[in-house]
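INFO  loader      accepted 1 record
INFO  loader      residues=123
INFO  predictor   begin
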Amino acid sequence: MTAVCTVEHTFAHRLGVILVPMTYENRDHLFAIGVLTGAAVCAGLALWLAPRSASELRKRIANSANRLGTRASNQYQEASARVGEAVGELTRTGQDVRDDVADRIARGAREAERVATASKSDS
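INFO  predictor   done
INFO  writer      dumping tokens
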């Protein structure tokens, strides 16, 4: 251990630092300084990361609620537009089917009338 201490003292002497032998009293002081430094750093972080004031918090909540309401309204309008388009397309398809069925019934009725007329004339 003497070699390590000698190297440390020599290096410290070159830097102009005076090394004081570590005693229990010095350790207690260093521990207290470390605790106080840690407490100061934690207090600073707590203040920096602490929630905002109540009015600022209410404002942030109100802004978030407004953004959520706007987004919900936009999605509702988009969904309504899509449903309206689907209903319109379904209505057009239904009308086309109805018209096609009506045309086929009318052709069937004319064909039945032609067959009936032809069978009367044959008799």
